[in-house]
């Protein structure tokens, strides 16, 4: 399975968040790719960013796309691990996670795909990348019944 994290914006060079993200990414046995998408500074920002994301979701099964949003389902680590386990067991070839920019995402994504949340707080979108990759790693470790989660 390939895990794609589609995120608007870019890590800056030598940023602490990036090194933490890479630490977890390297520990995941599945190919895990961060796809940093272009952001825009125009009055059509959301529409242009929507098109950027949709380029990568072409031909993707909607059941294999998760959007991160504060109004999404708040999953425990165990439930998230079960979600991952079900995807693996069902033969899912590609799983895409979508993280918006600081301006959020177009409602199209929240209406079209399943959404999950890391709580009611608003988090910096670059930090959400780190939180997501850690939860993916944690979920996979729970599936393996390793000591990491304990």
Query: Mind telling me which CATH architecture this is?
Result: 3-Layer(aba) Sandwich
Assembly state of the chains shown? single chain
> Roughly what is the average pLDDT, rounded to an integer?
91
**What name does CATH use for the topology?**
Alpha/beta knot
Runs with pLDDT <50, length 5+? none
Span from first to last CA?
26 Å
| Beta-strand percent range | 15-25%
Order of helices and strands: EHEHEHEHEH
Strand order across the biggest sheet? 2-1-4-3-5
Tell me the CATH superfamily: SPOUT methyltransferase, trefoil knot domain
Structural class, by secondary structure, is alpha/beta
What composes the largest sheet? 5 strands, parallel
Q: Total number of β-strand segments? A: 5
Shape: globular
Radius of gyration: 15 Å
Q: CATH top level?
A: Alpha Beta
User: What's the total helix number?
Assistant: 5
Give the count of structural domains.
1
Q: Can you give me a brief rundown of this structure?
A:
It is built from five helices and five strands. It has helices at residues 16-27, 45-57, 77-89, 107-112, 125-144; strands at 2-8, 31-37, 65-74, 94-99, 114-117.
Structural description of this entry:
The protein is an alpha/beta fold and 150 residues long. The protein has a single domain, classed as 3-Layer(aba) Sandwich (Alpha/beta knot), CATH 3.40.1280.10. It is built from 5 helices and 5 strands; from the N terminus they run E-H-E-H-E-H-E-H-E-H. It has a 5-stranded parallel beta sheet, sandwiched between helices. Helix 3 links the parallel strand 3 and strand 4. Helix 1 packs parallel to helix 5 and helix 3 crosses helix 5. The longest helix has 20 residues. The protein is globular and about 50 Å long. The protein starts with a strand and ends in a 6-residue tail after the last helix. The mean pLDDT is 91.
């Amino acid at each position: 399975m390939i895990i794609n994290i589609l995120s608007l914006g870019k890590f800056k060079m030598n940023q602490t968040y990036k090194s933490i993200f890479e630490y977890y990414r390297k520990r995941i046995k599945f190919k895990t790719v961060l796809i940093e998408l272009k952001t825009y500074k125009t009055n059509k920002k959301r529409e242009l960013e929507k098109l950027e994301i949709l380029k990568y979701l072409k031909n993707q099964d909607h059941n294999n796309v998760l959007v991160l949003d504060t109004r999404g389902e708040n999953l425990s680590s165990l439930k998230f691990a079960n979600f991952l386990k079900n995807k693996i067991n069902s033969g899912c070839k590609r799983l895409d996670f979508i993280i918006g920019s600081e301006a959020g995402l177009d409602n199209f994504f929240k209406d079209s795909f399943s959404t999950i949340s890391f709580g009611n707080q608003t988090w910096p979108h670059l930090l959400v990348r780190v939180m997501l990759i850690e939860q993916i790693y944690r979920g996979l470790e729970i599936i393996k019944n390793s000591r990491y989660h304990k």
